[in-house]
Amino acid sequence: MKLEGRGTFENSPCVKEFVQRMMLGGHEAFVLDLEKCEMMDSTFMGTLASVAFRLREKSCGQLRVVRANERNTSLLESLGLDHLFELQPDPLPDAPEVLRKAGLPEAGPDERRESILVAHEALVEADPRNAVRFQDVIDYLRQDGSGGNC
């Protein structure tokens, strides 16, 4: 996969859906090229953590993140995610394909809310120190039926 632009709560469901579909097809190893990724929000990073946990459930599943810029590498490390997947400065010999939204359903408000919640819970699971940072977000999202978009 290749992310161009920003990794945010808006495209996190797309990444999650893509990985799920590929895993159903028997794929267990994924490479995410962040060379042209400007920035990532906590939901996107939590989605990566969630994907890494799902892949670990498979005996040989893995996620590799390649060519992340200094800022994105620092963000991943500061949240303790660097132990969940490999961070590599260079791409693998096989060129990754560009991940596009085409063919994947657009997430509705409820699905987006659930995606944000799961992502932030994965951040806390990845490193319990993240609870201090994200507990308010998690509590808010767990509230039953509170309207509003995240």
Structure description:
By secondary structure, the chain is α/β, with parallel strands linked by helices. It has one domain: Transcription Regulator spoIIAA (2-Layer Sandwich), CATH 3.30.750.24. Helix content is 45%, strand content 17%. The chain contains 5 helices and 4 strands. The protein has helices spanning 12-24, 42-57, 70-78, 109-126, 131-142; strands at 2-7, 29-40, 62-66, 86-88. Strands 1-2-3-4 form a 4-stranded parallel beta sheet. Strand 3, helix 3 and strand 4 (86-88) form a beta-alpha-beta unit. Helix 1 runs parallel beside helix 2 (42-57). The protein is globular, with a radius of gyration of 15 Å.
From the N-terminal CA to the C-terminal CA, the straight-line distance is 25 Å
Strand order of the largest sheet: 1-2-3-4
* Total number of domains: 1
* CATH topology type: Transcription Regulator spoIIAA
Shape: globular
> What is the annotated CATH architecture?
2-Layer Sandwich
Helix content percent band: 40-55%
Order of helices and strands: EHEHEHEHH
Q: What is the alpha-carbon Rg in Å?
A: 15 Å
Number of strands: 4
Going by CATH, the homologous superfamily would be: STAS domain
Uncertain segments of ≥5 residues (pLDDT<50)? 98-102
- Which strand-content bin applies to the residues? 15-25%
CATH class: Alpha Beta
Give the structural class.
alpha/beta
Question: Would you kindly provide a brief summary of this structure?
Answer:
The protein is α/β, with parallel strands linked by helices.
Which terms would index this structure?
150 residues; alpha/beta; Transcription Regulator spoIIAA; 5 helices; 4 strands; globular
